[in-house]
Amino acid sequence: MRSIILRIETNRGLVLPFAHSHTLQGLVYELLSFDPVLSSGLHNKRDKRTDAMKLFCFSDLRGRYRKNTAERTLVYNGALSFEVRSPNDIIIETIAKSVRDDPLIVINGCECAITGFRIDSPEFPCNILDMRMNTPVTVYRSGADKKRIYYTPEEAEFYEIIRSNLLKKYLLVFGAPYEGELAFTCLDAASCRRVVTRYKGDIINAFLGSYRLEASPQMLAIAYYCGIGSKNSMGFGFVDPPPIQ
């Protein structure tokens, strides 16, 4: 399980819409296209055997930006960073090889350069991970009419579905059911801010906020490297440790 943190620079302002997870997902797939077999497997939605390959998550762009409320855009300037995590080392290795081969990328029509990267692999010696959402977490069930029913941090279903989702990811990664403590709770109700966004035309309800996961070090790693909740490979549920006070 590893992560890769890319340093990105652009000579002119990078303009992204408020809802830009699809654009960043496209960047990840562009970097992964260095390995055609891997890229094809990740795009194959009908083959359940590839589910374990699809376990990755990515951050929002980190760096300075200004909001253009009238046009509903964010304008990024200067050095930026972008992180991808996965329990599948091949994903991280492929991105590293792609960057070494060609450090120039295009994001939403803006030419950028990857000027460096770092591969990291933090471990979790304790049984508690306090986190804040770098990208919002989305939690839902599909009703009988196939419409999604989204849940909020004020509802018990929110935490039940997150725990169930983590158990499924653990089974995919380790090939055995999880046995141990597993508690997911909200640390600060005031921080749980709703984010209503779009992904390819779909309206998605998601939440930022600060949370605590109490589980084995292996399960903490699942949350860190796979993401929390649903749609992680679409830009949701990426966690960061809380800022140092």
User: Percent of residues in beta strands?
Assistant: 35-45%
Element string (H = helix, E = strand): EEHHEEEHEEEEEHEEEEHE
Structural class: alpha+beta
Number of helices: 5
What's the total count of β strands? 15
Query: Low-confidence runs (pLDDT<50, min 5 residues)?
Result: none
* Radius of gyration (Å): 18 Å
Regarding CATH, which class of the largest domain?
Alpha Beta
Mean pLDDT over the residues: 88
Sheet with the most strands, sense and barrel status: 7 strands, antiparallel
CATH topology of the largest domain: Alpha-Beta Plaits
Distance between the termini: 28 Å
The CATH architecture assignment of the largest domain turns out to be 2-Layer Sandwich
Overall outline = globular
Secondary structure: helix percent:
25-40%
In total, the number of domains comes to 2
Could you provide a short overview of the structure?
The protein has five helices and 15 strands. By secondary structure, the protein is α+β, with helices and mostly antiparallel strands.
Q: Can you walk me through this structure?
A:
The chain is an alpha+beta fold. It folds into 2 domains: 2-120, Alpha-Beta Plaits; 128-240, Alpha-Beta Plaits (2-Layer Sandwich). It has 5 helices and 15 strands. The protein has helices at 21-32, 36-43, 89-101, 156-174, 217-226, and strands spanning 2-10, 14-17, 57-58, 62-68, 73-86, 104-107, 110-120, 128-133, 140-142, 148-150, 182-188, 194-199, 202-207, 210-215, 239-240. The strands form 4 sheets. Strands 1, 2, 3, 4, 5, 6 and 7 form a 7-stranded antiparallel β-sheet that branches. A 4-stranded antiparallel β-sheet has the order 11-14-8-15. Strands 9-10 form a two-stranded antiparallel ribbon. α4 crosses α5. The chain is globular. It starts with a strand and ends in a 5-residue tail after the last strand. The mean pLDDT is 88.
